Amino acid sequence: MAFNKAQQLATFSRVWYLFDAKWQCPHMSGERIARILRGEHKPIYYPGESTGDCVIAINTRHVALRNDAWRSEALHIKREYAKTRYDIPLFKLHELDPTKVLHLCVLSCMPSDSIRRYDMARLYTFPDDAVPVHLIKNVCDQIRGSRVIPKRLDDLTPNDTKTFPQMFKWPKELVLDDLDRDKFVRVVPPEEIPKREVMLGQRAGKQNYWFHVPTSRHEEVKIN
Amino acid sequence: MVRLLRYGTIFGPLKDRWRYLYKRDLYKRRLEAGPEPERFRSALINWNYDAELYACTHRFGEKLNIESLRNAMTDASFLKQIVKQRTEAGLAATDQTTLAFTHNQELAKQGKQIAEDFLQKALHYWYPKFPQEGIEAITKFLLSESTIADISSGLGFKTLIRCDIPSPRPTMLTNALFAFIGSINENTGRSRAEVFVADFILTHLVGKDINEIWQVKNPMGLLTKVLEENGRQAPESRLIWATGVSSVLSTYVVGVYSNKEFLGKSAGATVSIAEEMAARDALRRLFETDEKRAQIPFDKLYKKGLLLDK
Amino acid sequence: MFISIGKAEINISTTFNVRANYPVRKFVHDNVHHDMEVQQLYTKVNNLVNDKFHQRLFAVIKIGDEQRKVTTEDIICKVDEFHPTIGDRIRFEKVLLVGSSDFTVVGRPILNPHFVRVEGIVIEKTLSQTQMEYWYAPRKKKVGARNYLWKDPLTMIRITNIELLGPIPGTNQSSSR
Amino acid sequence: MSQFLRRITSLPIQSIRSFHSFDEVTPAKYISTRLKNGVGSRYVCQLQRLTIQVCKEFRTSFGTRDWIANDLIKFAREHPYVVVYVQPRRHRAPNLVGEYLAGDRQWIPLSNCDREKVNWWIHSLLTQKGDPQWRLLKQMHTDSPSVQGIWTPFTNKPIDRITRTYPDKDLTEMEYPQITATQQIQELFEQQKLNKTS
Fold it and tell me: Which distant-in-sequence residues (6+ apart) come within 8 Å of D116 by Cβ?
């Protein structure tokens, strides 16, 4: 085999990346993955050519979204036919398919031209660590996360809280919330829970949750 | 601008029917008659052999006299043809007058010898670490008939050579070029002939890779032999990279090391190919004939004064 | 001046990397000129420069306000008028960058002619293919559309020689001081 | 003779119909030379033979006749490596045929060209390689495209990737994590302690 053939094989080889999506923001990591799938991270990138690399995204179930994005953000599916207009909130979508959130973020970061389909086909998403052996063998590099993984409150050891420097002293007369809410819990009898009336027509797509999900506007979600 | 729609043919838009039929008939006759027989360039009117030879002497900046060039350009088959024509014309073999010119076999032998020596010297000087078999393989490739035939047809000897058939065969072309080198050697001296060889035969290597001309059957075996000579340990190959192992576009990058020192690396679709190419790459780096090697200074070989003393 | 050795880049004019919003480790601290480590770098690069036999050099050249990366034995094509005829040897003045496999010297903006010599020879002067420009002006009675045909004169130049004539400018003084 | 700018060329038989304007479809080539011309110490002019067919009487070859009368000797003396044949052909259009070393031929009709234009065409034949009018796919030609090594996905990657088993723990964090608020407070606290102790 000639030297230049070996060189061409090396230069145009398709590199397989692994991405651990635990605690990562799908939007920021979606931008990185889209760039790698299109091959724009290579100096030999050319729009006509498919110089993209493959990416295996794991732990997409543990993706972290900002603030109350799980509830307020939604997947809008608009079709011309009736009854196919859906506004699925992300938490519902996550239940249906844990890998879909990251997939949609990468899809939105890709320019919507004809080869997007083929580039997206090079993205393999898995909800947990379980990856088929023949795929994990291909991996040769790992994409680094795009945010610092925070420490959960229940992971804090009492030692940390003690050593953390005291910024200021609480005033003596301050009363922390010592109300014991469990006492005032009332179990709602089933007959009181509002039934979902089946509504047809324009409201059909929107009215499928017993709590109000303002998908377009940002409002407080009233949970009773 | 309204354009009339007209019938059209390969001869252009159809104006008159009789013209179209006439041309179609001519075309059919041509196909039946077959291509024109090949003719000697000297058969055409605008041909003057002395002027051509005079121009040829000036073309390459070599000061040759016309007679030696005429000898270099005449082929043995041309002389045979003359003798045959004379015998047909009834002249007995004895009283045929000797010709003013001779064929170019001896000059060709001389030229080939000069070219061979010079090429060996130049390659050995510029690639000192390259083994002798490699240099011989390269000189054999450079002096092979096909290469020399291309070179001489590129120098315009195709029409200048006098031989029995219109387009000279590769052997005639090679003889002509070597005879030309021999005649330079006679007229102006060996150094001038060697500069000619450097400018036209050695430059044939410009686009080519030395390591590919010399096909090494078993690169790893050769590598072990070379390392033993240098007193280093046997080569080991390690996998440096492997992507897409189970996919179709799999790439392995294998590196060759001896006693933890890096020798060479290369990529391949499978591990065996990558290893073999890595061995070739290691050889290339050991012999210092890889891309970062400077190009052969074709015109400065003598200015560097390195070839004269050898 | 910016000298890069293989992978490690020595940024002589140290500038804080504005784009990165994180503290960038400085490769080279400020008073760098007379440091011992940089002296070795200068001497190493100068030795590489003298070793003429084994280093294929490449250069970036500006010709007819186009920049070309050239090595020896390669052909560049200059499009428009170019005075020299076939067989003329040219020396290129505007050399922006010179390098080999181990070092790269970048001029700001061009390198000193006493340091670098890049020569070429004119091989061929031909005409380009026939190029056509179609022009259309609506509502014009006499001539509404026009085809403008031309051929550009092309000149092919082969690069014959790239040489470094001396040590890298600016490095020998500091070593001698 | 220097070849001055000739942007507007009145090509003898340049009709729109014969012109093919689709750039992608026109025949194209890469730059190449015969026999690595120019690499060695000498340059070989590719034009071998030049045949000028001219009519002594017709008006169309007036320029060709002027050129032959005035410039032919100077041209032949300047370029001894080119064989020039002059063919007087009665009542025919003037032509220029250039034959090149590699055997290519170029034919240029000279009807109604004046002496200066004939000279220009002859010099364009002289400086050519033999097959002009190609669309160039690339403006340059190199045999050694890269000296420092062509980029591969592995050039700028750390070498330890092959030894790791994926998913790898320490490759998941950010490469240059920003200093979070808690870390800043802890650093300030340590500094305060240091200042107090020192």
Answer: D63
